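Subject: sequence -> structure tokens, single chain

Hey, anyone have a minute? Need the predicted structure for the following. Not urgent.
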Amino acid sequence: MKKAIAAIALIFGTLGTWAQSSVITPTSVDLHINQDTSRDQLAQMQQDLQAAGIGFRYDLVSWEENALQSIRMAVILPDGTLQTEELEAFNNDTDLRILLAGEGEDRLFCVGINCLD
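Reply:
Had a minute. Here:
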């Protein structure tokens, strides 16, 4: 019973972290992909971005012992702006980010590991 409660707490804790780190609207996105990102989370990101009118495609994804190891992805905004990223090796510090903030000339759009706020 204690194990079941601990497992449920871990699941909700993971979902809470996921929800806190994701912001998705047509003009605001802040997603982080790291070694702990699961297949289900990538699929959910794709659905959430699509609901906001933003395309997100990925392939060449590999995991080793449930740790994300590589990914190639493309993000396309409704106006046709496209950014791609291919990361062949993740480590504990890797933070692959999809960032969109602002509109017009002040818009910030970045896909990669070097996105700044």
